[in-house]
Amino acid sequence: MSITIKRLAQELNLSVSTISKALTDSHEISAETKQRVIQKAQELNYKPNPYASSLRGRKSKTIAVVLPEIADSFFSLAINGIEEAASEKGYHVLIYLTHESFLKEEAMLKDFQNGRVDGILISVSRETAGSTHIQEVIDRGIPVVFFDRIREDVSTAKFTTNDYESSYNATLHLLEKGCRNLSFLCISRDLLISNSRIQGYQQALKDKNMPEAETAVINCTNNAEENYRMIKALLSGKQRPDGIIASVEKLTNPVYLACQELQLRIPQDVKVLSFSNLETAPLLNPALTTVTQPAFDMGKAAANLLLKCLQKKHSILGKDTQVIPSTLIVRQSTV
Amino acid sequence: MSITIKRLAQELNLSVSTISKALTDSHEISAETKQRVIQKAQELNYKPNPYASSLRGRKSKTIAVVLPEIADSFFSLAINGIEEAASEKGYHVLIYLTHESFLKEEAMLKDFQNGRVDGILISVSRETAGSTHIQEVIDRGIPVVFFDRIREDVSTAKFTTNDYESSYNATLHLLEKGCRNLSFLCISRDLLISNSRIQGYQQALKDKNMPEAETAVINCTNNAEENYRMIKALLSGKQRPDGIIASVEKLTNPVYLACQELQLRIPQDVKVLSFSNLETAPLLNPALTTVTQPAFDMGKAAANLLLKCLQKKHSILGKDTQVIPSTLIVRQSTV
DNA sequence: TTTATTTACGAAATCGTTTTCGCATTACTG
DNA sequence: CAGTAATGCGAAAACGATTTCGTAAATAAA
């Protein structure tokens, strides 16, 4: 059995309420009594029961982080930032993975309506095309902050990177390096982040008066083997692109592997550029040109905003989107 | 305000206890009443307050995962496995990162003494040299399962991989490929996992009658720049090794970078082998030979055991260590 | 000295569930 | 038909902390 306040009260011949007040340093309690209580609490190794506190105080000092996956440097780094921000302020972090399933995401958000968490950080799944499940928890008074994979139709704070611009610049870069037939690999048509990148890509093509190839935008799936087949087909087709932009990190591997298998040289035959936070990008064969996202910073900033909101009384999150820029790092795969 | 049982009771002209029993499908309640209650609950979108339940039932359906870091494929994959196991059984996962600090780890475990979590999965920090902080939570009745970075002096369940054997085999592999002057990069002398790998390495050297070089075992730190300097010094010294074993994933980057900078060719000048779960290992320049650990499986197995223990009444965890083997995958960096 | 005010503490309600009793009905048994 | 057993529900006591309110004593103000 754990030590409770009641037990402390007995030991010290004080009332339960006095103990509680003493431990929260209330002005109602004399310095001397506080001393005695604190000492005894340490002596008995008293730890307040968080569930009792949460029940009474209707706040849990816990936030939820909802992510599509974790085996992606971006999300790992983001969690790192989130955990750092949370632990600094004494908050706890619950992790939930949707594995890109909207149904799972929906079920999780439903579960959050019960008050398990004080707030939510979310990066939606690739299948997420609507927002009612998110709006519902917000309506229940639980603040939500988006990061990276945001949804614009929800009026709350969002952290993102300059997807359109980075993609535009990445495309320009490939064009400057001589590509005339680009392909763009995306993972969803529902994600804003994905669409912004597509649009940046397309706008750059347009601005440079490049015709879009048939192969221009490839919709990848959530199935790694399938993606690999598609990419291999793309690279062995007649219209074989001379440049590929992978809009997410996990599409890098199949591209490189397909090139190896097809004996295509990077960058001579195909230039490759990826949105990625892989630490090993400079070590790849050849070193990979990346659009590197501010993963850690986005996670930390999003968490900090959410926590600030939680710590105030009735503060409501702004609905503005904060943009933290990505960096294009040119390496050999596009030279 | 949230919908509570009391509210349901009012709406249906029933007592609070009846509602509760109906919702838990108690035999005391008639089928008809159950139907009414369930229907009303859905209608009002009733969600039981988890903190009230936890307080009453003294279990939280939550486990803690304590890790040194997350920007490491091994731990990302392990979390993946853990989350999968937990969500299957309706458990929630709290994530805590020690950043290799023993003090943080200790503080976290102290915090767990209050009943926030029903059980703990832990991979200890590189600084962790004692176990009293872990033994204390166990003594408080909170089960702990180790994975990967285990401590043998705690009598509880542990999941690990065949570190000694993998390291032994990895070393043999390098010797077979002609190396005569190996170096081994480790991160801690306190971690069993690290020591096992060192011992496997040393035993292989001994079995093959190889003298240990001066440079044999290098203690790396938690500081990336410092490690880089050390590795560079190692590779530019007189006793330059012709083979390097990096005992953790994050030491791969500095080795490759140092080789690049020093214009050393892998594998001709130096062969490189790493304990790593990097998906990009086959894409590196050159492709990296790895000892690949069963990260996902270890995470999932450890979580499943912990959860099974939590779901039984008074079950106590065995103290035996389960070993899930790693795989040596030979690639060009050691050919 | 009397009244007002502070100081220091305790009793009890509360948060929302779960669970143990107890108490009526109704159904069954001998 | 008396007595036992099952059925269906409600009252109330937990779980452990916080908070409001009350009150006695001590101090200050009149």
UniProtKB/TrEMBL annotation, chains A, B:
PROSITE patterns assigned: HTH_LACI_2
SMART domains reported in the protein's UniProt record: HTH_LACI
Record bears the keyword Transcription regulation: yes
Keywords of the record: DNA-binding, Transcription, Transcription regulation
Top-level taxon of the source organism: Bacteria
Domain HTH lacI-type: 3-57
SUPFAM superfamilies, per the entry: lambda repressor-like DNA-binding domains, Periplasmic binding protein-like I
UniProt cross-references to InterPro entries, sorted A to Z: HTH_LacI, LacI/GalR-like_sensor, Lambda_DNA-bd_dom_sf, Peripla_BP_I
Molecular-function GO term, any one: transcription cis-regulatory region binding
Name this polypeptide is given: LacI family transcriptional regulator
